[in-house]
Structure formats: C-alpha cells, structure tokens
Amino acid sequence: MTQSAEVISVSEDKKEAQVCPIVTDACLSCKEGCARRGNPFAAANPQGFDIKAGDLVRITASQTAESVQAIFSLLLPAACAVAAFFAANPISRALFQRESAEGFKAFCVLIGILVPGAAVMALSRFKIRPSKPNIDKVF
Q1: How far apart are the first and last CA of the chain?
Q2: Which single residue of 37, 49, 74, 114 has CA 20 to 30 Å from 5?
Q3: DSSP state, 29?
Q4: Which residues contact 79 (CB under 8 A, 6 or more apart)?
Q5: What is the pLDDT of residues 63-109, one digit of tens each?
C-alpha cells in the first residue's frame, strides 16, 4: 500500500504522526482545499523526517504485514473451504449413513469459508493490532 496523506499532528519526539489520507494523488498539487479526506490514523516516522502539521507525506505499509494479511484473510478461508469439500463425504456418512449430495457439499464449502472468514474478521477487529504504516517521503 502506498498512499498520500497530510500530517495533522506530530508527537514531541517526531517518531509518530497523525495523518489524514488524501484520496487521490491529483489533489496534491491543488490549492483549493476541496480534496476528499479519509479517516485520520497514526503513522510511524522511522527515518526521522522533520515533519510538521500540514506537510504532505507518502505512507507505505510493511511488505511483511501485507503478506501476513493476505495469507490469513485469503488463503486460510480458501484452504478451509477446500478441506470442507473433501470432508463432506465422511461427515455425511457419520451423520446420515449415506454419501453426501451436491447440496451438502456446497453447504460444507460455505461453512468452510464463512467460519474462518468470520474468525479472521473478529480477530482483526478486536485482538490483532497491525504495525503502523511508515512515512516514506515528505513532499
């Protein structure tokens, strides 16, 4: 992720700043002040740029954080759905003493996607705190 943002406030040690994302890059050169703004968030300043409120900066996310997010939000539910498809026959034999129908397989796949997806969403909302994005450049 790379995004342009405006600095709202800076911590005293200049290691962290509150920034408000600018929705389009075309708005960077505009002086009208009509650019759409996103929700403010905290960004780290690991390179120690001399920033102040009102500066325009480029924000980047960690490659590691993006990779972990992709694995848990995309690959985990997909793998569980595939596993649920293959588990449909043994589950059907154990519960109903017969082979599973296509509808039961589809139901198992749906459960295999929804349950891990809901777990990932709940963990990301309440438990997991991702690392802050970094200020990469000052315009």
Answers
A1: 18
A2: 74
A3: G
A4: none
A5: 887 888 888 888 999 999 999 999 999 999 999 898 889 999 999 99
